Amino acid sequence: MNQKNINIALFALLAILAVAFFVSNKKTVSSAAAVSTSAGNLKIAYVDLDSIQEKYQYYKEKMVEFDKKKEDADRQLNTAFQKIEEERITFAKKGQAITQAEYENFQRSYQAKMQSLEEQKRNMENAISIDGVKMLEELKNKINGFLAEYNKEKGYSYIFSTSNSLNVLFYKDSTNNITNEVVDGLNKAYNKSSQKK
Questions:
Q1: Is the pTM higher than 0.90?
Q2: Maximal C-alpha separation, the chain
C-alpha cells in the first residue's frame, strides 16, 4: 500500500468518522419544517485533513515509522533477490560444462526460490497493509476522542472534514475552520501522553 493509497484511506476513514460520529450524536428532527425553524441554532464547523496530516505530531511520527517499515521490507526483498540472481549468474558462467541434469536441478531450485521470494513479498505487503489500517484506526480513535471532548464546550451540530483529494463540502466559509484548534489540541494531548512514557 503506497503513500497515496494510505492518504486516500485516511481521508475516507476520517470523512466517515466525522459523519458517523455527529450523525449518531445529533438530535432527531421529525420533519423538514422542524429543520428550517431550528436552522438558527445549527452550528457547523470543518477540519482540514491535509493540515492534520501536515501538523499533527502523532500522525507524522507514525508515518515515519510506517515508511521505515516499507523501506526495510523493500531492502530485505531486494537483498534476497540479488542473492538469487548472483547464484544464477555464477551458475551460467559454467557455460558448456553444465550437464542437462545440473541444469534441470538448478532450474527447479531457482524457480522454487523465486516462488518463495514472491510469497515472502506478498506476506510483507499484507503485514504492512494491516499495520497501515491499524495506524489509521488509532488515528481515527484519537481524533474521535478529541472531538467528543472538544465539542462538549463548543456545541457544534456538525463537524465535517475536508481535504484537497476528498472534499465533502462544496463551499467553506473559513470562519468555520476549526482545524488549528483541533491540531493544537491533538498535539497537546499527544505531547502529554508521550511525556508519561
A1: no
A2: 92
